[in-house]
Amino acid sequence: MRLLRVEVDKATGLQLAHSQLGARGRVAKATVLEESHIASLVDAGVAKVDVVVPDPNEIAEDLVSERLIHSLTWAGCVFKKANGGRYNVYASHSGFVDFARADIDAFNALSEEITLATCLSGASVTEGDQIATLKIIPFYVSESLVSVVELVLQEINLKVRPWQSHLKIGLIQTSNDTITSKIQKKALEVQESRLRAYGINELFDYRSTHDLVGLESAISRATEDALDVLMILGASAICDRHDVVPTAIEEAGGTVIYFGMPVDPGNLLLLGEVGRIKVIGLPGCSRSPAMNGLDLVLDRLMAGLRVSASDIQTMGVGGLLTGKHSRMVSNRVVSQGLTGSA
């Protein structure tokens, strides 16, 4: 592609490089100049304009974006054409955006002429949220580069995983002399609202004293209900792998996968399992609707993904959630009227 400065009366049929104010309005960047544009510019006293001229075997930006977008096989996405060699990508349903960042970085390293911007992998989105944009930088791109980029795009796997609203979720709350029934009722309402964000409208409710015998018994009752996920909110926060909650999980025949996470608030979250049931020992901050480490773990589980120790370890980047409001409040309609952080 060549950028040339030519006399206005010789620019008919050429593409304008920069927007230019004419006597009868502004002529937009990238406009292919017609006689009416030329007349308007001449009447405005414009003598010369910058135009772009493609080299042989180069393709116009809009055609490039159109061609490349058809290389994508992304699930749960809607593609919409925009101006200036751009296509925007939106979520076709609520869910979890899943892709490998390394793929996007490698794509953007191919050339400065073609770019792909996305939201963060692991983002929670609702229907209609923009999740990516494909933008062609110059007016024209060589056929050889477009052919290479097409092949690379075909290998990028991005999907919006829908929330698994059929999952059965339970909550055990333990009590001591400082946790009242009113506190437990409020905590239950918060978790119910948290789950409604995933389309889950039922939460199995269990109560127990905050001791090994009582909690182990409650876990056993919960396993009989064939839950998919069991959350345990202790009367006091878990402080050690030998505390009441992790010990009760092991006594009930389960295992502790990981304790602690590089997320704040939410550091003291515990991840375990009893049989096929995923168990989450909740941090105290989960009593509030404010976003915390529990939300990051639930996002993966509700999207049908596993959560391993390594998954927890990689949550540190972006894991500083202090000051973030509840997604239940800001992005979704919540009937309980929860309006802020505790």
What does this structure look like?
With about 350 residues, the protein is an alpha+beta fold. The protein has helices spanning about 35-45, 60-70, 100-110, 145-155, 180-195, 210-225, 245-250, 295-300, 310-315, 325-330; strands spanning about 1-5, 15, 20, 25, 50-55, 60, 75-80, 85-90, 95-100, 115-120, 125, 130-135, 140, 160, 170-175, 205-210, 230-235, 255-260, 270-275, 275-280. The protein is elongated and about 90 Å long. The model is unreliable at about 330-340 (pLDDT under 50).
C-alpha Rg, in Å?
A: 28 Å
Relative strand content: 25-35%
Q: What is the third-level CATH name, the topology of the largest domain?
A: Molybdenum Cofactor Biosythetic Enzyme, Chain A
Q: In order across it, which strands form the biggest sheet?
A: 16-15-17-20-19-18
In total, the number of domains comes to: 3
Proportion of residues in helical segments: 25-40%
Structural class by sheet pairing and helices: alpha+beta
Average pLDDT, rounded to a whole number, is 94
The sequence of SSEs as H and E is EEEEHEEHEEEHEEEEHEEHEHEHEEEHHH
What distance lies between the first and last C-alpha atoms, to the nearest angstrom? 58 Å
CATH architecture of the largest domain: 3-Layer(aba) Sandwich
Shape: elongated
Determine the number of helices (DSSP H or I, runs of at least 4 residues).
10
The main pleated sheet reads as: 6 strands, mixed
Uncertain runs are 329-342
Look at the structure and give the CATH class of the largest domain: Alpha Beta
- Count the strands? 20
